[in-house]
Amino acid sequence: MSGFSLIELLVVIFVFSALGVIVSRSLAISLRGSNKSESVSIVKENVEYTLSTMERVLRNAQSLSCASPVRIDFLDQNGSPGRFECLGGASGHIAQGSSQIRISSTEVNVNCLVNVFVCTPASAGAPPSVNITLSAVHQALGTQIEGSSTSVSTRVQLRSY
Hints:
The chain is an alpha+beta fold. It has one helix at 6-59, and strands at residues 63-68, 71-75, 81-87, 93-96, 101-102, 108-110, 117-120, 129-138, 149-157. Strands 1-2-3-4-5 form a five-stranded antiparallel sheet, covered by helices on one side. Strands 6, 7, 8 and 9 form a four-stranded antiparallel sheet that branches. It is rod-shaped and about 100 Å long.
């Protein structure tokens, strides 16, 4: 008689099911890595945009003062008052001006429970400066397996006119 025995069929089914499991797991890991990479990119881009906006405005400011660890008041290059403020606690955002225009993306939560702004007054020929520290996480994914967080710090010195 020709044909396949039951044991041969079971071995083939086992081999193909094992290959199916291996392929599906590697595909899932690859997709998870892709989502993680996209999340990291979104958080970094948004934090860098927010930081560059604040740097540009503050570098050209005439004066500045830290009203609190999460708020900085300044006079812009035209002498108009302005401010940056971190609003919303651990799931916050950065806002600009009295109308509190959001400059950080809705895709990102900024941690406002830390010292975001630390001002240093002018001294011995050095212009006033501010240290800005932003810690952010992806709003939808948080710090889960596919989520991401980043922390960026910079020092901005006012230009001496």
